[in-house]
């Protein structure tokens, strides 16, 4: 049975996904309430896996909780913390929990998180994990041993579409497609001209691309991203709008809505990242709908 995300993308519908972080403790009530409140507007929720190498509740279990509630998750599974045996074991568990969408990641380096002395595994990286998922879908493990039955995952991958050196990203993208990637979610996009150029180049791959939209809420926030988040370029005009704004959060909402409107004709959906401000996602989407009606 196909996921809602897969069905919509294959029908050519413009999808909206959103990122949600599991809690830093065992209490998932707020996490579930947050996703339930947004579920009417979001096709699927990316459940992050110890993002930025910071300890959080299990992404697998959190994704299973969402699936049980009828809310569609995209289970982000990182190679950083698991060897090949553990990765495949968790994937079999994900299938049993009704999780259909996956986003395999290599994983952030441990030095950036709150467990810098932990030992990274990295036996696999994201492309090798995509190949493993492809094999599990066919009824075999990574080492070609048959499993009982098969999985039915819809796997995606990530890409940076606005890096100044585009060619290496396009080559990695091609390898991920060969390994089984069905769709791509991008890093946050602010340079729309660069993104348009990327989309023209990526058209040859005939794959689905969901563009990242990151909510900015202050000039200080912009400076932090510039210093600590590699691969994201924020144009000077956006920086100036936030710096000069009397209500930076509202300006950030307006910018995000404008980006969605501009991307509607370029790609196959948007991925909203409103870290710690997920309650602003409906405001972004409402403003986007208003902008569409104005034209």
Encode the helix/strand succession as letters: HEHEHEHEHEHEHEHHHEH
Our measurement of the CA-to-CA distance between the termini, rounded to an integer number of angstroms, reads 38 Å
Q: Could you estimate the helical fraction of the residues in percent?
A: 40-55%
Q: Largest sheet, described in full?
A: 8 strands, parallel, barrel
Q: Hey, roughly how much beta strand do the residues contain?
A: 15-25%
pLDDT below 50 for ≥5 consecutive residues: which ranges?
A: none
Shape: globular
Number of β-strand runs:
8
Work out the radius of gyration: 19 Å
Biggest sheet: strand arrangement: 1-2-3-4-5-6-7-8
Q: Taking all residues together, what is the mean pLDDT?
A: 94
Structural class by helix and strand composition: alpha/beta
Summed up, the helix count is 11
Q: In oligomeric terms, what are we looking at? A: single chain
Structure description:
The protein starts with a helix and ends with a helix. With about 300 residues, the protein is α/β, with parallel strands linked by helices. About 45% of the residues lie in helices and about 15% in strands. The chain has an eight-stranded parallel beta barrel, surrounded by five helices.
Give the arrangement of secondary structure elements.
Layout: H1 4-11, E1 15-20, H2 29-38, E2 44-47, H3 59-68, E3 73-78, H4 84-96, E4 101-105, H5 126-138, E5 154-159, H6 166-178, E6 183-188, H7 192-202, E7 208-214, H8 219-228, H9 236-244, H10 248-263, E8 269-273, H11 281-294
Parallel strand pairs: 1-2, 1-8, 2-3, 3-4, 4-5, 5-6, 6-7, 7-8
